[in-house]
């Protein structure tokens, strides 16, 4: 029997910036609608020196000062959120890297979604290898929701569900239906494909129409022929005044390529609308990433 898709635990990394606070507002409202637990995590850089005496922390006094300051800020944040939302809320401080912190929480707390603040439209050249956003998208073991700093809504009434590749279509459909239900919203199903892929893409598109109909979801649908799917999807999102675009981790086989001007980077650069990147958590949990050195939590590009 197929398990029902739910969002029961949400993680939000914060550096206490306006960008992160904007994403926090969205995450808190989302947690309230889904009756989900919200975990707010702040990471503190820890650097080590390895010598004859073994592995030693550099600047332990400064690290402790940062931890004390972070605890004060998290306590204030928790008080404010409890007064406003009365959520199942937990705050955490980690000295691991942001990716390792998130993946540890995914394992220990069964996290379903990571919400991150982003700076919105970016220049492709600035989407750099080693940025926190890139590393989280590359290595986090569950779905990621990117919230542009300019997005000031707290709900997703208009959901754009593109169908262009077969990857994660069922999960994308489940999440579209779930979000439409929790936000009293509707779904725009958009089939896009070039001439070479039209037959296969139309088949998947029709299958998704049937899935939405069987689940009594409110939706509109259209199919467009395109040689630049990212451009068509971004244009449709603007025209339909979409509040969120649902993509898949494997929407582009080469999206993780650093230099390529690929589909995923085009989407980030072409729209200022939240992107939900769907990942199959169970599949990804089988592939543990190497523990690496921590980055700071400023999340520059795209967040």
Automatic annotation (TrEMBL):
UspA domain boundaries: 7-148
InterPro entries (alphabetical): Rossmann-like_a/b/a_fold, Universal_stress_UspA, UspA
Keywords: Coiled coil
Keyword Coiled coil: yes
Family classification: Belongs to the universal stress protein A family.
Pfam family of the protein (one): Usp
Taxonomic placement: Bacteria, Pseudomonadati, Bacteroidota, Flavobacteriia, Flavobacteriales
PANTHER family assigned to the protein according to its UniProt record, in alphabetical order: STRESS RESPONSE PROTEIN NHAX (PTHR46268), UNIVERSAL STRESS PROTEIN UP12 (PTHR46268:SF6)
UniProt keyword ATP-binding present: no
SUPFAM superfamilies per record: Adenine nucleotide alpha hydrolases-like
Name assigned to this protein: UspA domain-containing protein
Regions annotated as coiled coil: 60-87
